[in-house]
Amino acid sequence: MAKLFHVPLSPYCRKVRLSLAEKKIECELVEERYWEQDPDFLRRNPAGKVPVLKIDGKTMSESAAICEYLEEKYPEPSLMPKSTDARYEVRRIVGWFDDKFHSEVTSKLVGERVNKKVMKLGFPDSRNVKDGARAIKYHLDYMAWLLDHRRWLAGDVMTLADFAAAAHLSALDYISDVDWNRSEAVKDWYAKIKSRPAFRSILADQVPGFPPPAHYADLDF
């Protein structure tokens, strides 16, 4: 069985978890306090980051590389379209969320409100929180624009792009930092993603000291 070293609210770990679950690959989840720099963990990934996946006799790091490996080794169900142009669009949107969205939103909201406390790094920086709360509006509007032109974020079928976005938004939703009333299209998109069997384990996550809001696991939110 595969084994994933992860942190529950890490969007990068969640993206990998969603890919594994969608492809019905059984996987043991092991929470890893990577910030403690445990020597055993550093031997698995000298970069000292999660996720780290042990599968097929290999130890893998970097969520983008892991998801590409899973797609190539376990192609069904596919999370990448066939055409070169469509695959580019998926990778572009995955990059948007894993780079721009994370830098402007996730790191400033989940990072300040949850990670700092868990890692004992002090109190949240109120300016960062305000910046993140302002930036998420722009990103939700961009998602709404995309969904006005296509059924899913990268095209007419669900792809890894949708999982990348949902990984970030679900982590933010855990701390009630998403205004789902800002866009009906985004809310409907998330409801479709959230109702997939692959999402079940994510909706069961619990972070000690941070209980999720009542709507978090509600499929009819």
Automatic annotation (TrEMBL):
Record-linked InterPro entries: Glutathione-S-Trfase_C-like, Glutathione-S-Trfase_C_sf, Glutathione_S-Trfase, Glutathione_S-Trfase_N, GST_C, Thioredoxin-like_sf
Alphabetized UniProt keyword annotations: Transferase
CDD domains hit by this protein: GST_C_family, GST_N_family
Residue ranges of every copy of the GST C-terminal domain listed in the record: 83-215
Pfam families, alphabetized: GST_C_3 (PF14497), GST_N_3 (PF13417)
PANTHER family: GLUTATHIONE S TRANSFERASE D10, ISOFORM A-RELATED
Subunit structure: Homodimer.
Annotated protein name in UniProt: Glutathione S-transferase
Organism the protein comes from: Roseovarius marisflavi
